[in-house]
Each structure stands twice: as C-alpha cells, then as structure tokens.
Amino acid sequence: MSWIYLFIAGLFEVFWATTMKLSHGFTKLNFAILTVVGMIFSFLFLAQATKHLNLSIAYPVWTGIGAVGAIIVGVFIFKDQLSAMTIFFIVLLVISIIGIKLTS
Questions:
Q1: Prediction pTM value
Q2: Membrane topology per the record (predicted)?
Q3: How far, in Å, are 78, 79, 86, 88 from residue 12 at the CA level?
Q4: Can you tell me whether residue 88 is helix, strand or coil?
C-alpha cells in the first residue's frame, strides 16, 4: 500500500506543479488555491508512504515521479520542446526510478 501512496503523492506533485504554472505566478486565484491543495495532498500521501518505506527510497521516487510527470505535462500540454540529449537523460531518470523500486 505504501508504494500506491507514494505513486499518488507523485501524481499530486505533477498536479500542483501544473496548476502553479497555470496560476501565472499566483495571480490567478483559482489555480493558486489548487496549487496549495495539491501540495497538501502530495505531502500527506508522501507522509503515509514514509511510514513503511525508507525516506532514502521514498523521497527520490516521489521527486522522480514528479519530475517525469511534469516533463510529460510540459511536452503535451504546454508544448515544451526537448532536445535529444534531454530525452536521453529523462530515460535515464525513469530507469533510475524503476531501479530504485526493484532493488528496495
């Protein structure tokens, strides 16, 4: 169950990062509120996950899910452009997250 909590925490990290961008520097109140709510839920689920997972495992996986998810949102929603080298390192990040899961 802890891994599910950790995955949900990572999804909420992607959510709040996305709504933070949409808030335009916290000038759009509705998105600013959603950002804070997303942060709260992300931290709550991370806290639940760390009850049974080592912090040294949970935190990098959480940030990795958030990073890769934010990249996906950036590319598909905000039309961010990535170089081939950036994509290569994103793939390494995904492999690292999977490796941490498999070896823990």
A1: 0.88
A2: Multi-pass membrane protein
A3: 18, 21, 24, 25
A4: helix
